[in-house]
Amino acid sequence: MHIETIEIGEVVARVSGAGTPLVFVHGFTTTAEFWREQIGAFSSRYKVVRINLPGHGLSPRPPGRSYTIEAFADDVLEVFLRLDIRQAVLVGLSMGGTIAQSFTLAHPERVQALVLVGATPHGLGEDVNVDNVLKAIDDLGVVQASQNVIERSFGSAASQELLDFARQEVAQTPDFVAREAIASLNASDTRSRLGDIRVPTLVVVGNEDVITPPAESVILAASIPDSRLEVIEDAGHFPMLEQPRKFNEVLTAFLWACEEKVCPTSGQGLSQHSI
């Protein structure tokens, strides 16, 4: 599978495949590689665009720019413009889910469908409360603080190899990026505007997620008019890594239904399913 690395402003994107664009946005201190299990599953049918947000992964981390939800949403728009993406399915993980909500509310014409993974409408669980994260950065340094959160993010079935991979990835985000990003994430609140999201939406959460507890996904799915909630069993905050087969099946079914213009959410309100 050919993967092209493209620099777009202060974003480094990994692009593979062709077809309807799927734009993947990772979470706080994570990277585009957290979507590694989706490359083979979707690149044969879709144009898979995995964004490394500024300050994360392969992307540059200039000290003079903003690392806020709003600034990240502008970076996503720049990716759309530079890659000539008129409309895409936007998939956001955790903080990436907050960015995806912000982007969809600002640019609804560019979002064909929305997928929110381990996301919330406001704030995160106690493990990533802004005060706790900033204190941990002060006490332990940003690398150890990020790695400690990562270790609590996985469910009980996660392998040591997966934990080691994640620890290595999050170590790339510097102190000043993490501080500004977590403060902005903590302040973000879309609860009053979720009803304005009018695209088919899939909400996915692991049943063992303590970073963004499943109750938050229930709120999201109940508040977005055309939405469906899928709970992935035996997974924590990263179901697309922990249970990739299950996650990919859920996403594939949603995408196929949307292509047939009979998205399982449309006009039916909230439904929930666990696999």
Automatic annotation (TrEMBL):
Family annotation (Gene3D superfamilies): alpha/beta hydrolase (3.40.50.1820)
Annotated AB hydrolase-1 domain residues: 22-249
Spell out the Pfam families in the cross-references. Answer: Abhydrolase_6
Highest taxon listed in the record's lineage:
Bacteria
Q: Which PANTHER family match?
A: MONOACYLGLYCEROL LIPASE
Protein's name according to its UniProt entry: Carboxylesterase
